[in-house]
Structures are given as structure tokens and as C-alpha cells.
Amino acid sequence: MPEIPDIEVFSRNLKKLLTGKQVTRVNVVNGKKLKDKPAELSKALEGQKILDVYRSGKELRIQFSKDVLLGIHL
After folding, report:
1. Structurally, how many domains does the chain consist of?
2. What is the distance between the alpha carbons of residues 49 and 22, in angstroms, rounded to a whole number?
3. Rounded CA separation 55/62 (Å)
4. What pLDDT score was predicted for residue 37?
5. Which neighbouring-strand residues pair with 69?
6. pLDDT band at residue 74, thresholds of 50, 70 and 90?
7. DSSP line for the chain
8. 42 is in which domain, residue-wise?
9. Are 45 and 64 in contact (CB under 8 A)?
10. pTM for the full model?
11. What is the pLDDT of residues 10-68, one digit of tens each?
């Protein structure tokens, strides 16, 4: 399990790589731990522009256009 400093570095690196990019396709490999169905996740994220990537506690958050926020617990 990663510690908070590791997640902070990870989020900063992802922010540099992903901010401003557009999601063209979502591929869910294992949807067992998703709250939503894979098709719903794909529909919500595909075509969205990534506005920000940041850490909140031990969660990585990705802010998309159209007020969509993806939280990933690490």
C-alpha cells in the first residue's frame, strides 16, 4: 500500500502528463470494485478533457470537464 508522499509524487507526475488531454477510450479490465457499471464509467469519461490531477488523503482524484470527478483509492 502506497504512503501519502508516494501518492503525492504520483499525482504530480500524472498531472504533468495528463492535464489538457482528452479521454478517447475507457477500458475496464476488472470492474468488480467499481461502484458504477463499466459501460456507465465509459459513457461518463469518454470525450472528457482532464483539467486537474491531485491527491486527497490516500485518494488520487482526476477532475474532468463537465464537473466529472474520478476518485481512485490507492
Report:
1. 1
2. 4
3. 9
4. 92
5. 63
6. confident
7. ---HHHHHHHHHHHHHHHTT-B------S--TT-SS-HHHHHHHHTTPBEEEEEEETTEEEEEETTTEEEEEE-
8. 4-73
9. yes
10. 0.90
11. 999 999 999 999 999 999 999 888 988 999 999 999 999 999 999 999 999 999 999 99
Q: Kindly state the cell numbers that stand for 3.
A: 504512503
Number of C-beta neighbours around residue 26 at 10 A: 14
Domain holding 68: CATH number?
3.20.190.10
Q: Which own/partner pairs from 66-74 qualify as long-range (CB within 8 Å, at least 24 positions apart)?
A: 68/44, 70/45, 74/1, 74/2, 74/7, 74/10
Query: Which residue in this structure is represented by grid cell 508516494?
Result: 6
Lookup: cell for 38: 463499466
